[in-house]
Write a structure and sequence with these properties.
alpha+beta, BirA Bifunctional Protein, domain 2, 2 domains, 9-stranded mixed β-sheet, 7-stranded antiparallel β-sheet, disordered N terminus, BPL_LPL_catalytic, biotin--[biotin carboxyl-carrier protein] ligase activity
């Protein structure tokens, strides 16, 4: 039975500190008000992707929602402009990429309203696996239409994938989250960095030392019997405000002046994601669950479920066990009753607004 009025709260210490809903500070208002077309540099790993870039430029195919204009340029034209030293290094990213599908066609922009808008609005014009990276974006969005305004130093990218089984679409955000944490581990290992323990807060947030440092946004549309999925990632790499970032924590742990580079993390992400995604599609998410549970924050977490029964509120303690096959939280009550916890859609924090569904 679905109890619409139920909610739950943490019983033992909370897993997060209270932070602003926007991950990062916004850019200057002058950039937000700019009517100039957004520059998109179309780049490819191989000659195949480079030919796609030329075609998109010649046909003037790409645009933004609501009639927003873009200026499409080729990778060879990057050096004709003067960008700062902290601009995304396209060559470094592509040279570190070992994938066969994902990330091989890159759209880079120094300033965009939203990377997610680029890939989702132009989905059918782009090869599947296209990634869009921006140095700064000023109209990014998170879950439930929350603003995601990010400054330089924050890694922001969105990419495309296509799926046929609608039952698996809600689970892909977990694969994306896992690929981010695995990519950071990989960069640490390859560069001799200290271990940085980035964890997953269900369903789509990334935490470091109790603070939110990143988030995942996956959206989809159904067309021609396929789900066109756009997945966006925002992660604090070099911007320490308003919470913390990878490089701040690395400085605290390391005696040498090491830094994470956005290009290394992005390439490592796609290298990991392609492997994990293939396992997910061919063998199911259950194959990845053990690794996912080692990375998330919730195993054994006890919460109080509040359910309204006529004029009184009844509280029951449940313990999170894992995920159900549909991707919601699986919990067990002290009465050994299994239940499924999922959002009621009215709360920003999933752990302050969930509905309990009893499982037979």
């Amino acid at each position: 039975m679905l109890v619409q009025s139920s909610r739950f709260r943490l019983l033992f210490p909370p897993i997060q500190k209270r932070i602003p809903s926007s991950l990062s500070f916004s850019v200057a208002s002058s950039a937000m008000d700019s009517a100039s077309p957004s520059m998109l540099f179309l780049c490819g790993k191989s000659s195949t992707e480079s030919e796609i870039a030329k075609s998109l430029k010649i046909n003037d195919t790409l645009n933004l929602p609501n009639g927003g204009k873009v200026s499409a340029l080729l990778q060879s034209e990057i050096n004709t402009f003067r960008f700062g030293e902290d601009a995304f290094n396209v060559d470094l990213f592509l040279n570190s990429l070992t994938t066969k599908r994902f990330g091989r066609f890159l759209i880079w922009s120094p300033l965009l309203p939203s990377t997610h808008d680029i890939v989702s609005h132009n989905f059918c014009e782009l090869p599947v696996g296209t990634v869009c990276v921006a140095d700064t974006q000023f109209k990014g969005r998170g879950r439930s239409k929350n603003a995601w305004e990010s400054p330089r130093g924050c890694l922001m990218f969105s990419f495309t994938l296509q799926m046929e089984d609608g039952k698996t679409v809600p689970l892909v955000q977990y694969v994306v989250s896992l690929a981010v944490t695995e990519a950071i581990k990989d960069v640490c290992d390859r560069n001799g960095f200290p271990f940085i323990d980035v964890r997953i807060k269900w369903p789509n947030d990334l935490y470091l030392n109790g603070l939110k440092v990143g988030g995942i946004l996956c959206t989809s549309t159904y067309k021609s019997k396929k789900f066109n999925v756009s997945s966006g990632i925002g992660f604090n790499v070099g911007n320490e405000k308003p919470t913390t970032c990878l490089n701040t924590v690395l400085k605290e742990l390391s005696t040498t002046p090491n830094e994470f580079r956005r290009e290394d993390i992005t390439a490592a992400f796609f290298n990991k994601f392609e492997m994990l995604y293939d396992i997910f599609i061919n063998q199911g998410f259950q194959t990845l669950e053990e690794l996912y549970y080692r990375t998330w924050l919730h195993s054994g977490q006890r919460v109080i479920v509040q359910e309204k029964n006529e004029d009184r509120v009844v509280e029951n303690v449940v313990t999170i066990q894992g995920l159900t096959s549909s991707g919601y939280l699986l919990a067990i009550g002290d009465d050994n009753q299994m239940c499924e916890l999922h959002p009621d859609g009215n709360s920003f924090d999933f752990f302050k607004g969930l509905v309990r569904r009893k499982l037979e």
